[in-house]
């Protein structure tokens, strides 16, 4: 008889290359909690994800972090990012104006009103710009991190496939 | 290290890793380090509370 599935909706394996020191820490935690190394690693990944990609020891203020990151860019890239950010902010403002019902439909990918349809098109266009212009030219991971997360939120809210 | 995760979590990690121009392995490693940070902070908080009680 096969053993029951750990994740009923299906599981998958990821392989990570980690420093030996981290492996030893995870192994010690696993021994302490009586769980497998994989289970502990999965828990840590979830916790890291919940922490929102910032270190708990020294969480930077997001606007400051972006400001610092922008300073490190070449002028042309900086201009590109600033323009993209402006469009992102406009889209976020439009999203805030949608009614709760429209938002619910949008999240399910069933936009109905003219405003929601146009906003969804804008976000698809933003995703395209991000893929073709921003990601290819801007190599600073902090900048990509900050604006990528904002774009991802918009895409989720409007049911735009990733 | 091989980690068994739910499919949705792997998809979310892959998306977020792509946004950051990172490999899935690299991103998972970063998250594990952050997760350990959180764990340590929680433990420190709990031991501080225990000291207050005593």
Describe this structure in words.
- The complex is a heterodimer of chains A (162) and B (54).
- By secondary structure, chain A is mainly alpha-helical.
- Chain A contains 7 helices and 1 strand, in the order E-H-H-H-H-H-H-H.
- Chain A folds into 2 domains: 20-50, no CATH class; 62-157.
- Chain A has helices spanning 20-33, 37-50, 62-71, 75-97, 100-107, 114-137, 141-157, and one strand spanning 11-15.
- Chain B has one domain.
- Chain B has helices at residues 7-19, 24-53; one strand at 2-6.
- The longest helix of chain B has 30 residues, at 24-53.
- Chains A and B meet through strand 1, helix 1, helix 2 and helix 7 of A and strand 1, helix 1 and helix 2 of B.
- Strand 1 (11-15) of chain A pairs antiparallel with strand 1 of chain B.
How would you summarize the topology of this molecule?
The complex is a heterodimer of chains A (162) and B (54).
Chain A: E1 11-15, H1 20-33, H2 37-50, H3 62-71, H4 75-97, H5 100-107, H6 114-137, H7 141-157
Helix pairs in contact in A: 1-2, 4-6, 4-7, 6-7
Chain B: E1 2-6, H1 7-19, H2 24-53
Helix pairs in contact in B: 1-2
């Amino acid at each position: 008889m096969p053993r029951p599935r750990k994740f009923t909706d299906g599981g998958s394996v990821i392989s990570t290359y980690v420093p030996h020191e981290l492996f030893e820490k995870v192994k010690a935690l696993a021994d302490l909690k009586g769980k497998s190394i994989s289970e502990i690693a999965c828990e840590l990944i979830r916790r890291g994800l919940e922490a929102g990609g910032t270190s708990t020891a020294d969480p930077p203020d997001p606007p400051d972090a972006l400001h610092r990151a922008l300073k490190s860019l070449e002028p042309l890239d900086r201009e590109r990012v600033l323009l993209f950010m402006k469009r992102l902010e406009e889209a976020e403002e439009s999203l805030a104006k949608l009614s709760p019902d429209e938002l619910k439909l949008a999240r399910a990918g069933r936009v109905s009103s003219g405003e929601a349809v146009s906003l969804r098109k804008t976000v698809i266009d933003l995703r395209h710009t991000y893929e073709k212009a921003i990601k290819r030219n801007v190599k600073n991971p902090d900048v990509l991190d900050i604006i990528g997360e904002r774009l991802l939120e918009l895409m989720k809210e409007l049911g735009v496939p990733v | 290290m091989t980690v068994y995760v739910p499919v949705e979590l792997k998809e979310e990690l892959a998306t977020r890793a792509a946004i950051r121009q990172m490999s899935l392995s690299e991103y998972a490693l970063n998250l594990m380090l952050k997760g350990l940070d959180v764990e340590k902070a929680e433990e420190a908080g709990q031991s501080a509370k225990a000291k207050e009680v005593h």
